[in-house]
Automatic annotation (TrEMBL):
PANTHER family: TRANSCRIPTIONAL REGULATORY PROTEIN NARL-RELATED (PTHR43214:SF24), TWO-COMPONENT RESPONSE REGULATOR (PTHR43214). This is DNA-binding response regulator. GO terms for molecular function: DNA binding. It holds the Pfam family GerE. Residues 4-116 form the Response regulatory domain.
Amino acid sequence: MTIRILIADDQAMVRGGLRMILEDQPDFEVVAEAVDGVDAIEAARRLRPDVCLVDIRMPRLDGIAVTRALAPLKVIVVTTFDLDEYVHGALRAGAAGFLLKDAGPTLLVEAVRAAHAGDALISPSITVRLLRHFHPAGEPQSNPLSERETEVVQAVARGRTNQEIAAELFISLSTVKSHLSGIQAKLGARNRTEIAVWAWENRVVPGGS
């Protein structure tokens, strides 16, 4: 099965470099390149790629606005700068990943595969470090989840993959996926990143703010 990818970046050299890395994979196909946010949205809506790689700083519309506009398409936000404000904005917009441009070819490929599979969206270290900064606006919302669903949410908020969650909770991978579907429905979350944000904002994670 081919994973169809869109690359949006205003620098031709960056687009070319990303394309070269991605198309080295036998099951990856770059179906479009875009030079700014408006072009990215138009191309993504027309071609419906499986994963979009979107630069955070682009003319006309930035990567966060593009991510928000393209939901529920899977968007990985790419940036040169590891700034909390960028990551927070990307996560709140529903990004399916956050990647630094110097992350290297291996991590780029892993990020695309993970986003496509709905699995590990951003590296656990970045997930935990940045999600800890989400502070509740007021009192935490009431928790509508079962005890087992809460355990799954806590694991997601710590950056665990589906396989890791299954191993930690001694349940099957299909059961993890079933729980995640139910959790998304209960929370109105578009993806697991939004589940993690909800968990940190509502102090569901032990030791969270």
